[in-house]
Amino acid sequence: MTAWPTQKLATLCREITVGYVSKMSDQYVPSGIPFLRSQDISPGHIRSGDVKFISQAFHERLKKSKLSPGDVVIVRTGYPGTAAVVPPSLPDANCADLVIARPGPGLNARFLTFVLNSPWGKAHVRGRLVGVAQQHFNVKVAQSLEVPVPPRHSQDRIASVLGAYDDLIEANRRRIAVLEEMARRAFEEWFFHFRFPGHEHIRILETVDGPLPDGWRYAGLHDVAEVAFGFPFRSKRFNAEGVGTRIVRIRDIPDGRSETWTDEPFDDRYSVNDGDLLIGMDGIFHTAIWSGGAAALNQRVTRLRPRGGRSVGWLLHAVLPKIEHLEAAITGTTVAHLSARDLQL
Predict the structure, then answer these.
(1) Going by DSSP bridges, is the β-strand pair 72-75/98-103 parallel, antiparallel, or unpaired?
(2) 233 and 264 in contact (C-beta within 8 Å)?
(3) Which listed residue, of 210, 213, 242, 318, carries a Cα 20 to 30 Å from 161's Cα?
(4) What residues are paired with 211 via a beta bridge?
């Protein structure tokens, strides 16, 4: 990229602005205009699973943060600089706390996202963040950010080639999601409705905890899994240069990967390995099986390891409905919190 001339992003875009930044929780509706937040943005793609909605009337009030296909949305806090293009499948959308870049004719929107999401882009964004307690990527930083600009035909070619690989990865992720849903439905049939193979020949007994197939029993979470809680690692020792050990924070759970390291030493009881089941304990209680390699367990993340030869897939599907129920039931002043007591399932 260094061989290409660079230009400030402000000169390459028709407009750079920011999404809505005030309180939103009382504006969400069951259906309506999709309302994107930072947790909905992954490198190159917009996650649709947890997208919130606002009314058409509120959407019209937020003219500044209206989104159109081709706009580039960039995360301000959390994973600052992470970028994705608004797809044609979102002809009407709005957003909160995201930088919005509207590329001009000389800039391919998807090319820009590949630049921002690349190691080069992350390093350049990281060196320009502002804020003390929580660093963030704001409009001024975005406007002054210098990005490499090859000729437009080269941008288009690069975006096309990289996009093909990116789309294939995303298609595989969707296939995995379908398979996971099939596994979840099968689990519910077998373990909740007791319609497992051969169930016709098994008596259903009434117990103090409810009906159960003969020979089955209810068990607490601590009986079937080793439960561990994260360590309060010092954020000042976090880095993105690969120094030390990857660290798992709540935001890393859905993607099963982390781009943050810590050089702080830690006890093995705070280790995370592929196949561990992780639960985020604040906000959205993300629950997933980790696949991002050896890492360290940060505070407010819980690690479960099945006992007695049980599979982690079984543990995931056994725990997930209860976690989802807790997420729906627990309310806080601003953010829902899961406690160790809540995990006495």
Answers:
(1) antiparallel
(2) yes
(3) 242
(4) 206
Last-in-domain residue among 100, 125, 150? 150
Mean pLDDT, all residues of the chain: 90
pLDDT tens, residue by residue, 50-81 = 799 999 999 999 999 999 999 999 999 878 89
Range of the domain at 121: 6-150
Instruction: Say how far apart CA 214 and CA 15 lie, in whole Å.
Output: 66
Q: Name which of 218, 227, 233, 331 is nearest 269 in CA terms.
A: 227
Residue 334 has pLDDT above 70, yes or no: no
Using the 3D structure, point to which of 97, 122, 150 is the last residue of a domain: 150
Q: What residues pair up with 148 in beta bridges, in sequence order?
A: 6
pTM for this model (two decimals)? 0.73
Round to whole Å and give the CA distance between 293 and 249: 14
Burial of 227 from C-beta contacts in 10 A (0-12 / 13-18 / 19+) = middle
Q: How many CB atoms lie within 10 A of CB 301?
A: 26
CB 277 within 8 A of CB 323: no
Sign (positive or negative) of CA dihedral 241, 245, 246, 249: negative
- pLDDT, tens digit (0-9, with 9 covering 90-100), for 38-49: 889 988 999 877
Mean of pLDDT values over 325-332? 71
pLDDT of 241 > 60? The answer is yes
| pLDDT value of residue 131 | 63
Q: What is the pLDDT of residue 332?
A: 47
- The residue assigned the tokens 């998807």 is 110
The CATH number that applies at residue 316 is: 3.90.220.20
Alpha helices in the chain, H assignment, sequence order: 9-12, 56-61, 109-117, 119-126, 139-144, 152-187, 221-224, 312-329
Q: For residues 136 and 37, state if they share a domain.
A: yes
